[in-house]
Amino acid sequence: xxxxxxxxxxxxxxxxxxxxxxxxxxxxxxxxxxxxxxxxxxxxxxxxxxxxxxxxxxxxxxxxxxxxxxxxxxxxxxxxxxxxxxxxxxxxxxxxxxxxxxxxxxxxxxxxxxxxxxxxxxxxxxxxxxxxxxxxxxxxxxxxxxxxxxxxxxxxxxxxxxxxxxxxxxxxxxxxxxxxxxxxxxxxxxxxxxxxxxxxxxxxxxxxxxxxxxxxxxxxxxxxxxxxxxxxxxxxxxxxxxxxxxxxxxxxxxxxxxxxxxxxxxxxxxxxxxxxxxxxxxxxxxxxxxxxxxxxxxxxxxxxxxxxxxxxxxxxxxxxxxxxxxxxxxxxxxxxxxxxxxxxxxxxxxxxxxxxxxxxxxx
Length: 363
What we know:
Helices cover 36% and strands 16% of the residues. By secondary structure, the protein is an alpha/beta fold. It has a single domain (17-352), classed as TIM Barrel, CATH 3.20.20. Strands 3-4-5-8-10-11-12-13 form an 8-stranded parallel barrel, surrounded by 6 helices. The protein has a 3-stranded mixed sheet with strand order 7-6-9. A hairpin with a 2-residue loop joins strand 1 and strand 2 (62-64). Helix 4 (92-101) crosses helix 6. The longest helix is centred in the middle third of the chain and has 18 residues, at 120-137. The radius of gyration is 25 Å and the shape is globular.
């Protein structure tokens, strides 16, 4: 043992002072994440177009422009920008085609998984491009946190929707800090579709949901007091009846409904009135998802869902957004990325140009 100790000591000393080992240690130090230099993701959006469009605000039960004139939006939802970019179709031409459709509002769904995997810093670059391109076309933007499920219990319909209250609050902190003052971004849609999936996703009361939304609105308004928060109803954002008893405790907001044809059996209008239409007499309401599927060239009857839902919404002064301007996400408006329209796409293009509607009477 006495003869080995000097040898081992010598080996250890020789290894410690090897230049290669020292260089390796220095490289590791240089590449270390210097977290103390980190800054928030939501730096202000730097673009000369931030004030290009008239600001939209809430007045009574309407969305209005600076002159107090009612604005009724007719729009579409695109797919998640992360998906579109990965598939090679994220470009200005996409938004130019929306202008041709007659779109005045583009809904941009941001899935939690895409936000995390791309990283907030990189995802903001996609949103910046979308807002710039929409500004060029005179189209407003609704940024949508696209989750489906029970945010309170953190149980969601599919893995792509998994999130947490902390991540949701942080998302809106980042977005509102980044886009405050930008008039193109008219709406922040706080949560896409709250649902318990008939108990499979746990339970949540309207009071719980009301509190979560009020907390999100509080975070947003600490940075941005102008962009309009949108609050979704229960039952996959369809049911607004809880507003009869407990409206959200915040001014200058709107409410969301998703009245797809499967939500209620025919006849629809009386049931739509009962479930969400009544709210439009007191609050601004926007149907941020409607849609259906028909073969191209189909001539729709007045009793079909498309004419009925558009005429009903416009008769109540409810803005509407169609799902989805994408060839894959049903019900689709596009047959392909040459922007060839499906039957539903053909119908809604006509509707956006006012070609298939009765003259609405706004209440």
